[in-house]
Amino acid sequence: MRIAVIGSGYVGLVVGTCFADTGNRVICVDVNEDKIARLQRGEVPIFEPGLEELIQRNVAEGRLFFGTDIASAIKKSQVIFIAVGTPQDEDGSADLRHVIAVAQAIGTHMEEHKTVVLKSTVPVGTNKKVAAAIAAKTRLTFDVVSNPEFLKEGAAIDDFTKPDRVVVGCSSERGRKVMEELYAPYLRTGKPLLVMDPPSAEMTKYAANAMLATRISFMNEMARICDVVGADINQVRKGIGTDARIGFPFLFAGVGYGGSCFPKDVRALVQTAREHGYSPHIVPAVERVNEDQKRLLFAKVQKHFGEDLRGRTFALWGLAFKPKTDDMREAPSLVLIDLLLGAGARVNVFDPEAMKEAKRLLGERVQFAPNALGACEGADALLLVTEWSEFRHIDLDELKKLLKQPVLFDGRNIWDAERARAQGFVYHGVGIR
Ligand code: NAD
């Protein structure tokens, strides 16, 4: 099939490249000229494991293209994926400006029937709005299919090519057939393609993210209770995760969730519900717990060192909102850095992949270390924010020599508290005895 993917970010690039890899001819389009120029030169603007090789292979084999000419991409494609950003608006709702702009462009430039696929995360009712925006510009026929994406940054290619399920919100037989054909190579293991009405497909994405965010906030709240009652969240996690009704995924306590999806999607869901006259209870609490949790490590630092942190230096490991990505959108590290700087501290930071993005966001406000241990030289304590695997097995003896004081704040509970304490460290975890 001839496919256009409009919006070449974390989602658009992965979706476009994977569809090219199953033999389709794909053009990825973006308004960001610099991004497209880099892609045309063979540079991949984001860090996503495996993506660079996959892009190179499909470009070399003449199936994957990049461009800024949206009109021509629309004209030449049978299927058009909308994968532009849907950032948070001022009131917390999803800003649909980019989605609607693309819909209008499709209506303006299409010259034959098109299947338009909404890949961006959009509130219930957007499928209808997109259809109306296209219809306002053309008399030609088209289908609008809602096809929310469930990939995770850091494992995006695997998630896309081995989905648990594909959700398709579609009211036309023709649209459903196109989706079945496109996804067939990824569903050979028998995982389902679930066809539902568009509002249910749109709602499924928000319900999934809200459920996952709820599990995180729930465990963070349990960890806070563990902290005050003297229980250990890791033991509790094992105790409840083994219950088949609960299971282990998303049960890790930490310093809160961030990223480009959970925070904005949780807020947008609340907004959508309120716009329709229902005021939810659980979902806003999930957000409040998370905001609080992002400040937890700072509270622990102040409890240990006192409120005034002037003259103190802290090493901070992990800037990306989670491992295996360079994405820092709504990263807990940003909140912690602001708080530390606000209290007068100096912060030495290190992240395996997000240093460039961090320099863009933080400029001269922090010190960028050349490697993890380098950040610890002369620091009063080490604060772990993102659990990159390379931080897991640290040489505690070496670390002790570098730090001014042997103090660890483990924001993701990745280190063995007992071992650290046995080696003379003061260890602070999240809900850890
Ligand atoms: P992103 O910011 O990385 O990429 C969006 C791209 O769209 C940008 O490159 C931007 O320049 C481009 N764009 C904006 N307006 C445009 C226009 N009018 N024409 C062409 N290009 C335009 O965002 P992302 O992380 O890829 O997310 C895209 C959507 O997918 C969002 O709705 C997001 O919620 C959803 N989503 C994201 C993830 C994730 O892990 N990142 C997972 C599932 C769903």
Tell me what you see in this structure:
This protein has 433 residues and is of the alpha/beta class. The chain contains 18 helices and 14 strands. It folds into three domains: 2-196, NAD(P)-binding Rossmann-like Domain (Rossmann fold, 3-Layer(aba) Sandwich); 205-292, N-(1-d-carboxylethyl)-l-norvaline Dehydrogenase, domain 2 (Orthogonal Bundle); 294-428, Rossmann fold (3-Layer(aba) Sandwich). 44% of the residues lie in helices and 14% in strands. The strands form three sheets. It has a six-stranded parallel β-sheet with strand order 3-2-1-4-5-6, sandwiched between helices. Strands 11-10-9-12-13-14 form a six-stranded parallel β-sheet. β13 (407-410), α18 and β14 form a beta-alpha-beta unit. α1 crosses α3, α5 runs parallel beside α6 and α9 crosses α11. The protein is globular and about 70 Å long. The protein starts with a strand and ends in a 5-residue tail after the last strand. The mean pLDDT is 97. Bound molecules: nicotinamide-adenine-dinucleotide.
- Tally of distinct domains: 3
Order of strands side by side in the largest beta sheet?
A: 3-2-1-4-5-6
Uncertain parts: none
CATH topology of the largest domain: Rossmann fold
Distance between the termini: 57 Å
CATH architecture of the largest domain: 3-Layer(aba) Sandwich
Q: Count the E strands.
A: 14
Bound molecules: nicotinamide-adenine-dinucleotide
